């Protein structure tokens, strides 16, 4: 599903964030991306949904090659990729329902299908009864559940999560992990950058460790491997 070869990224200010990434990720995998702060995890993740363009190397996601992708084709790539962020990034003036429906409205689904699908994903994340609330009226964990619902509403085959539990307390983090595991069990590939030793060492998955812009470890059912 994902193939990267010789991928490098040098930002315009001269910082080399990634210096030679070779990796394959198969459909249906659940992968943690770990490593010290500044190692290149976010850069790696942002390249997958073409938020960041590689300076060198080959990237293929599904059947689309990204290194030579034109800007006009990026929305088509992103339709098949859901993204969840540490800080949720919900639209503050829209209700829970509207935040989730928005992603379908931009691809012109019919209103009945939108309603059915939005309620289905809100049910999946346990927030059907809060559809009319606005983000400020929700706890952090609930806001993250809305952002997960938004990310999966158009059934992407790949879900990217950049420190999804970074702003949440431990108990809420486990709830979020349960939801992500459920989504993975239904066939969606998940790639999650995290600093949570507890999560990585408890819910065992493939671990890719990045240090200084390179993959230094890639293990199935791996350990977190750092003290913090
Ligand atoms: N837009 C940018 N312009 C210039 N340099 C950047 C940019 N984004 C990231 N960097 C630099 O690239 C390197 C890798 O950053 P990145 O955000 O990928 O690391 P990270 O492993 O995700 O870190 P953290 O765990 O702290 O989020 C760092 O040295 C960072 O300062």
From TrEMBL:
One of its GO terms (biological process) is cell division. InterPro entries: AAA+_ATPase, ABC_transporter-like_ATP-bd, ABC_transporter-like_CS, ABC_transpr_LolD-like, Cell_div_FtsE, P-loop_NTPase. The keyword Magnesium does not apply. SMART domains: AAA. It is found in: Cell membrane. GO terms for cellular component: plasma membrane. GO terms for molecular function: ATP binding; ATP hydrolysis activity; transmembrane transporter activity. It is a peripheral membrane protein. Residues 2-228 form the ABC transporter domain. PANTHER family: CELL DIVISION ATP-BINDING PROTEIN FTSE, IMPORT ATP-BINDING PROTEIN. Belongs to the ABC transporter superfamily. Part of the ABC transporter FtsEX involved in cellular division. This is Cell division ATP-binding protein FtsE. The gene is ftsE.
């Amino acid at each position: 599903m994902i193939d990267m070869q010789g991928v490098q990224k040098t930002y315009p200010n001269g910082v080399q964030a990634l210096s030679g990434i070779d990796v394959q990720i198969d459909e249906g995998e659940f992968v943690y991306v770990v490593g010290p702060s500044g190692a290149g995890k976010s850069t790696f993740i942002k390249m997958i949904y073409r938020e960041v363009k590689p300076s060198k190397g080959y990237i293929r996601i599904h059947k689309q090659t990204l290194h030579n992708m034109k800007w006009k084709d990026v929305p088509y790539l992103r339709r098949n990729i859901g993204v969840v962020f540490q800080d949720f990034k919900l639209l503050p003036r829209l209700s829970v329902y509207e935040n989730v429906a928005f992603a379908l409205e931009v691809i012109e689904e019919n209103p009945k299908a939108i309603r059915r699908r939005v309620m289905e994903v809100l049910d999946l994340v346990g927030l059907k009864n809060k559809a009319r609330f606005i983000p400020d009226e929700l706890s952090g964990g609930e806001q993250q559940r809305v952002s997960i619902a938004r990310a999966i509403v158009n059934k992407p085959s790949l879900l990217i999560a950049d420190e999804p539990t970074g702003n949440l307390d431990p108990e809420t983090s486990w709830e979020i992990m349960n939801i992500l595991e459920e989504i993975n069990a239904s066939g969606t590939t998940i790639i999650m950058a995290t600093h949570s030793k507890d999560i990585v060492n408890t819910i065992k998955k493939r671990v890719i460790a990045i240090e200084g812009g390179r993959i230094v470890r890639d293990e199935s059912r791996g350990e977190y491997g750092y003290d913090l």
